[in-house]
Write a structure and sequence with these properties.
Layout (H helix, E strand, L loop, with lengths): L3 E2 L5 H11 L5 H11 L12 H10 E2 L3 E8 L6 E7 L4 E9 L2 E5 L3 E3 L14 E4 L2 H18 L5 E6 L9 H12 L11 E5 L3 H8 L6 E5 L5 H7 L2 H4 L2 H15 L3 E7 L7 H11 L4 E7 L13 H13 L4 E3 L13 H9 L4
Parallel strand pairs: 1-2, 6-9, 9-10, 10-11, 11-12, 12-13, 13-14
Antiparallel strand pairs: 3-4, 4-5, 5-6, 7-8
Helix pairs in contact: 4-5, 6-9, 10-11
This protein binds S-adenosyl-L-homocysteine (SAH).
The site of S-adenosyl-L-homocysteine (SAH) has 18 residues, from strand 10 and strand 12.
Amino acid sequence: MEKRQLLGMTREELERFVVDELGESKFRVKQISEWLARGAEIGGMTNLSARLRERMSEIAVANPVRILESHKSKLDETEKFLYALGDGNLIEGVVMRYHHGDTLCVSTQVGCRMGCAFCASTLDGRVRNLTAGEILGQVVAANGHIRAEDPERRVHNIVLMGSGEPLDNYDNVVKFLRLVNDPSGLNISLRNVSLSTCGLAPRMYDFADEGLPVTLSLSLHAPNDEIRQKIMPVAHAYPMDDVLAACRNYVEKTGRRVIFEYALIKNVNCETRHAEELARRLRGLQCHVNLIPLNDVKERNLEAPSKQEVAAFQRRLELKNISATVRREMGADIDGACGQLRRKALEKGAQG
Ligand code: SAH
């Protein structure tokens, strides 16, 4: 029988488990949720009786995620994690140190089924969705790891930009967002959370109605449908007009500007006319464009353009009054780009 994941339970679910199933008093619920937020294992919840810890351990785990490997960049302190899940699946994440605090990039699925041509996460398709507990578990595990090094540090910002398409695992992702924001749990402000999507338009409307002040990032990567369809299969299902309309709706409903991710790919989408067309399409939309020189993926034959081309593309957007920045590359020496560490581990035959 698969063990229950305490970390993924809402307060009500935890209460049902502790009071109704285990027959314990209600005050245990608060004790247990405090331990969970601090990253304790069931065996380490020392204000519970040994008997209770034993009973709980038989049927449940606190955190279904554990760090299997960590790799720290010598260049910029970026640290990459390979996590193992209860069923042996592997996922990865990365923590980046910024002046405004530590930012953790989390995965939402094992693999991905969106098929973007430049992305390592999708090469073997989607294995399965992550549970809310497994998404939250990454935050708790990473928090424990960085705090062990420096008690002042903690995960301050979260980006849902690891492996997987968050809106393809909608219910678990929304549950995770509510849990991570819970004041009696990790209490991370949703204003410090970004969700990145390849553009599942109908789900973007649903997400706008959740009332969560999350920043929406849209992986655009092209100025028109013709180019977008070549590198992102999802563009066949949801044309750019529909996706941009869903972005406008998000801005209206939440009052938050949308971030467009645009990976610059040599000979594909980085000429002056592409910048011009992009600026035209985004005109009037409250947004910012994040330009990302493509991270080469060895399995794919796509490369980044030169630094000069990247700078020229940015200048052209700015000239057309579209705010744009080039994303700083971090962790270049530790396979910082998503999906790469897991692939290496799978090739080596690593198992959780
Ligand atoms: N599925 C979601 C989130 C995961 S990917 C999405 O599509 O947005 C996070 C970001 O990294 C996306 O913008 C994705 O398009 C981008 N990305 C993936 N592979 C990349 C690569 N090789 N170089 C640069 N960006 C990449």
